[in-house]
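User: Sequence in, structure out. Go.
Assistant: Echoing your sequence, followed by the structure tokens.
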Amino acid sequence: MLTILTKSFKYTMMIVCINFILINSGCAIPEINNTEPSHTKPKYSLSTMADPNETFVIDAYDPWERYNRSMYKFNANFDRKIYLPAVSLYHSVTTPPMREGIHNAFNNLSEVSILINALLQGNFESSWITTQRIVINSTIGILGIFDAANEDHELIRQSHDLGQTLAHYGAKPGPFMILPLFGPSTLRDAIGIAGDYMIILNVDPAGLYEQDILIQYSIEILNCIDLRDNINLEYYQTQSPFEYDMVRFIYLKARKYRTTK
């Protein structure tokens, strides 16, 4: 147990160091209009204009809203100044097949967490599909560089995480949160993200995180860039003064669907 906690702490510090390195990497900042549209706070709220017992589709449990909005702005600035320039640099030194192979390899690594959560949720069909995917992609797919399992239309990548597992056993979502760098979440899902990350670190079937410390840092930096590269959204692209509310609404609805289906 002490070994697991020590290893998890070491990699938590690694993530902090990676963010520091990225922030001080001197990447060129692209000219992106990423400023939150200004607006004045409405004089009246829904609670002053309607029955206080009535609920609305936009309602959400967000007791930390002031902090969340500040963190949303911080994430937007980090995205503009660090992530997007890093992704741009990444594209300039790699080809599409290379990026696809890297993305597939990280996906294959994360399938271990998917398998464990599928088992914990009692979904044996998904567990069997994921087991086949891991075996096929780790062998024929050369450690997941090629998604060979995807050739079989019945072996579709499954979607199970620890947040869903906690919901399966009755854990409530808790307050809505904006996590540093990760974005929208809930208290339950934040615990799930940390848990899934610990699973990947401690299982690590490919032994990637047992390499030299510089290789470990390089893997984590590449993983972060790959994750951002595969998110086709930008902060404040809606140009709406209510973007935070929309993001919160969409995230909570999507997670509710995934934890109840």
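User: And one key feature?
Assistant: The longest helix spans residues 65-93.
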